[in-house]
Design goal:
By secondary structure, this protein is mostly beta strands. 1% of the residues lie in helices and 46% in strands. Among the domains are: 151 residues, no CATH class; 85 residues, Immunoglobulin-like.
């Protein structure tokens, strides 16, 4: 039986002028991770071992896949490796594994399974490659996952097609093969999968959450030629959440207006360094000049100030939250993508797509006919400012079409005409 812990957040009105204190826990020896929602003021706590892989469920073409790096102080890590072969049917030896892969905590669109992605190629997902003719991402890499109990599984993501992930896994000798599917439409921002019990999709994690209190691997400088990955205890942001760090300030007096242009979408802006261990006192200490501003996917802005952290003994922590206001979604979207143009239009062969972005991000492209049916899809890594890309020659019949550009916080569309050739 799964040992799942579900706890509501203990939100205590502490008589603060504008704030509310929220208490949570990583559990003794950091055995727990908590998914917190500002909208519901709710923390759903689960054991680190309750899930293994996280699949991004946002957007039709978003294919980020993360491995669960959380582990208790004395526990065994879940380890992901490159396989020595790209053929899933090949037997694999434990002694012949490739490099270990880690999440880079940049976004839910880029996890350990995406580590080999070519940043200059928007069709490369790391685990697979976007096939424009099929309108799907087709898997072309094999991975090996070492489970917490020491067992090994080889795994390959077969495809991401029409919002459905299909993947398979087996023992290293090929026995016990299982094919699994995950439909993005059935989940919120991220879908979680566990190998326990023969493999199952986790359904007790809330569909939408803003902060994940967890342990994860982070590259740290320790005098080695290259940074070394160490387990840290910290906070990662949910999908669509942006955070700004205000350091060296009076945390009670600092205002969002001073930091609204410093919001970042990286998952680890809060991270682990809001606390440090005092060796002289042999206890954890918090910076008294630090606050964070967090904007949720719905546009709500909160100020948070950490007020306590007990360490591995109990894992308890607390932070003060204060509602700042709402950034209008219409206001956000108005400047997210602008200046969209396709030249030439009407289309006759390859064309140039031009647009401007308020900030860099993955742009999903969708070409639909007048019935709303998709005839082509793609994705590109857009830069902040002006962008120009050469579109491939798309085999479509003469007629009218709609080209949509989708970003996390905005969408624009343009009508195109294809001429007979």
């Amino acid at each position: 039986m799964r040992n799942t812990v579900l706890l509501s957040a203990m939100a205590l009105w502490a008589g603060l002028a504008n704030g509310q204190t929220v208490q949570g826990t990583y559990g003794p020896s950091y055995i727990i991770q908590g998914f917190y929602s500002f909208e519901n003021d709710e923390m759903v706590n689960v054991l680190n071992t309750d899930w293994d892989i996280a699949f991004s469920a946002a957007g039709a073409q978003d294919g980020g896949i993360h491995v669960n790096e959380a582990v208790e102080s004395s526990g065994n890590e879940l380890e992901l490796y490159e396989a020595p072969t790209d053929d899933f049917n090949d037997a694999i030896s434990q002694s012949n594994l490739g490099v270990r892969l880690y999440n880079d905590e940049s976004s839910w669109s880029h996890g350990a399974f995406n580590a080999s992605k070519d940043p200059g190629d928007p069709d490369d997902y790391g685990w697979g490659y976007f096939n424009q003719a099929e309108g799907a991402v087709v898997g072309d890499e094999v991975f090996v996952l070492k489970l917490r109990n020491g067992a090994y599984r080889k795994i390959q993501v077969i495809s991401l097609d029409q919002g459905i992930y299909t993947f398979k896994y087996a023992n290293l000798d090929g026995s016990g093969e299982v094919v699994q599917t995950i439909n993005k439409a059935e989940f919120g921002d991220v879908a979680f999968f566990s190998f326990a019990g023969g493999g199952e999709v986790v359904d007790f994690i809330p569909p939408h959450w803003d902060l994940l209190f967890t342990r994860y691997s982070a590259p740290l400088e320790d005098g080695s030629p290259e940074p070394v990955n160490y387990l840290v205890t910290g906070v990662l942001s949910g999908y669509g959440v942006e955070v700004a760090e205000a350091k060296g300030v009076d945390p009670q007096a600092v205002t969002f207006e001073e930091y609204q242009d410093s919001l970042q979408s990286s998952l680890d802006v809060i991270g682990y360094d809001w606390k440090e261990f005092n060796l002289q006192l042999f206890q954890w200490a918090l910076d008294d000049d630090l606050a964070y501003f967090l904007k949720t996917a719905s546009g709500d802005v909160w100020k948070i100030i950490f007020t306590s952290f007990s360490g591995a003994g109990s894992g308890d922590f607390a932070f003060e939250r204060e509602f700042v206001g709402n950034v209008s979604s219409a206001e956000e979207q108005a400047g997210a993508i602008s200046g969209l143009g396709v030249f030439p239009n009407p289309l006759q062969g390859p064309a140039t797509l031009a647009f401007s972005l308020k900030q860099a991000g993955v742009v999903r492209l969708l070409l639909s006919n007048t019935l709303g049916q998709r005839v082509w899809a793609g994705r590109i890594d857009g830069n902040a400012g002006f962008n120009a890309f050469l579109l491939p020659e798309i085999p479509v019949s003469a007629g009218q079409y709609v080209l949509s550009l989708e970003l996390e916080n905005g969408e624009v569309a343009s009508r195109l005409i294809a001429k007979s050739r």
